[in-house]
Amino acid sequence: MSGLLARLVPRSLFARLSLILIAGLATAQLLSTTLTYTERNDVSMGTMIDYVEIDLRTAVALLDRLPHEQRKEWLPRLRRGGYGFILGPGETGPEVSSDHALRLMNSVTRALTPDYPFTANAVPGGRDDFQVHLRLADGQPLTVDFFPRRGLPLSPWLPYVLAGQLALVALACWAAVRLATRPLRSLAQAADALGPDLRPVDLPEHGPSEVEAAARAFNAMQRRIQGYVDERLRILAAISHDLQTPITRMRLRVDMMDDESQQERFSEDLQQLQDLVREGLGYARSMHGKPEPAAALDLGNLLDTITLDYRDSGQPVSLQARAGGGALVTRPQALRRVLSNLIDNAIKYGGKAEVLLERPSDREAVITVRDEGPGIPAESLEAVFEPFYRLESSRNRETGGTGLGLSIARQLALSLGGELTLHNRPEGGLEARLRLRSLEQETRA
Known about the structure:
Blueprint: H1 2-8, H2 13-65, H3 71-78, E1 83-86, H4 99-112, E2 118-122, E3 130-135, E4 141-146, H5 158-193, H6 209-255, H7 260-288, E5 295-297, H8 299-312, E6 317-322, E7 328-330, H9 332-350, E8 353-361, E9 364-370, H10 405-415, E10 419-424, E11 430-437, H11 440-444
Parallel strand pairs: 6-8
Antiparallel strand pairs: 1-4, 2-3, 3-4, 5-7, 8-9, 9-11, 10-11
Helix pairs in contact: 2-4, 2-5, 6-7, 7-10, 9-10
């Protein structure tokens, strides 16, 4: 039952608040209308009962004084909305028992007692219908046939008025809820716009005092985060710069060593240290650095240039372009760095790289880099994007690398508004799939 209720309840806060307010107001209006209608019927019933007492006494006295042959002519004139007269014994039936009929019986008793002894019985098949039997002074039987109405008829325009009131209330609720939830939507959009570079997107600081205070606090939080990130990047850049000097001095001292075997080992260690510093700085910049401006780019030409550069250096890289559509708006340098990283990995671990370009639409592109290597275990396809994660336990750069290449590639892909995923190929090897979308909004901004 709870699962069914969860599926029926709207997911958005706007729809939920609107539903609650409109349902509550509709229920309140229904109860108010029901109570008003009931009270109206009770009052009208009391008035009718008082009226019956006087009218019935007058009508019976009139019929009693009329000549026998004229009484039948007067019956239609004496008929009322809730009862009429019959010259005859009427019907037999059970004892009167309904509350509505008993209230009328009290009025009948006061009207006819003690001048006209009577009996009464309910009419079979009617909920409140009953008959009162008496005899006039000349002995002619007279039956008062009661068929009381339980309420006064409604005006034909009343349902339309109630529906119009409910529509106005629903419209007011919709406007109020929309006004209340709009700042939440703006806050969610601003938070979502805070991309991988953590550059703040200021939220407009206007509106009600609570909304203005929340927007001001959110903007201040974004600026603090940006300040912390920029400070961390400056510290990392300073450390990287300062490390270059001792690394250079150590290289000079290593070059002066007489032991060639030790000299080669020290040189490799220093090269790994320098590469690690360089890639660490590159990772920080890919996450928090200022992104380059977007521009329209012919992806086919870019991939052709990159693959030709690799082939000129003797690397086995091929290109298959199933291109369509026009240029894509993206960041050229960031895209080139992502593709170079993926191609380098494919050559390093798979021996060769095959690049494929597809254009599902004018605003989308899919670039795939395939290799014929051993692939990656399925449980590690996402883990390899984490910083410093290595599939091998060895810290040898020739086998395990620094563990930052794919992390940098994914961060740059996110800055391009794209998605980078890895897939094992059924025929063997690994496939890196980069899905891009156009950044036209940034160029217009």
